[in-house]
Amino acid sequence: MSVKIFGELDTESLCSASQTCKLWHHIIEESEQLWKRQCLLVRAACQREVDGDRRNGLSWKVTLVRNYARSCLKNDWLRGRYSYVSSAEELSGRKMTPLDAETWGEILQAELDR
Questions:
Q1: Within 13 Å and on the Cβ side, how many CA atoms surround 27?
Q2: What is the spatial distance between Cα 114 and Cα 99, in angstroms, rounded to a whole number?
Q3: Mean pLDDT in each 10-residue stretch from start to end of the chain (114 residues)?
Q4: Are 73 and 95 in contact (CB under 8 A)?
Q5: Sequence-distant (≥ 6) Cβ neighbours of residue 28 within 8 angstroms
Q6: Cβ-contact 62, 42 below 8 angstroms
Q7: Is 60 in contact with 67 (CB distance < 8 Å)?
Q8: Which of 35, 52, 67, 108 is the most buried (most CB within 10 A)?
Q9: First-to-last CA distance in the chain?
Q10: What is the DSSP string of 8-75?
């Protein structure tokens, strides 16, 4: 029942819940089902990266951790959050992560389409 309830949480809330007590931490850490669900949401933005990590034998949790920030950043770029940045100072304090050439191609195409 706990896994079903935890399954309703988003990634950040799930990570916070795992820090609540030892029992919740154990339930969340040991549930591949929870991490898989979250990872498949990230896969919508970072399919190549997630699929590559899974092919390389990484667990759902490790794959999620490796790709969560990348998916958030990519979604922000694709939604146009950074469309009108005129200098690097405007990005100061924002967490950036490396993106591959194909991802940059998608972002540039989205900018051209706007």
A1: 16
A2: 21
A3: 90 91 93 92 90 94 90 91 87 83 91 90
A4: yes
A5: 6, 14, 17, 18, 34
A6: no
A7: no
A8: 67
A9: 45
A10: TS-HHHHHHHTTT-HHHHHHHHH-HHHHHHHHHHHHTT-HHHHHHHHHTT--HHHHHHHHHHHHHHHH
Retrieve residue 11's tokens.
């990634």
Amino acid 114: pLDDT: 87
The residues near 74 (Cβ < 8 Å, ≥ 6 apart) are 45, 46, 99, 103, 106, 107
Residue 85 structure tokens = 């940045």
Residues 6+ apart with CB under 8 A from 11: 38, 41, 42, 64, 68
pLDDT in the model for residue 51: 95
pLDDT of residue 24: 94
Measured CA to CA in angstroms, residue 81 lies from 28, 45, 47, 85 at distances of 32, 15, 21, 9
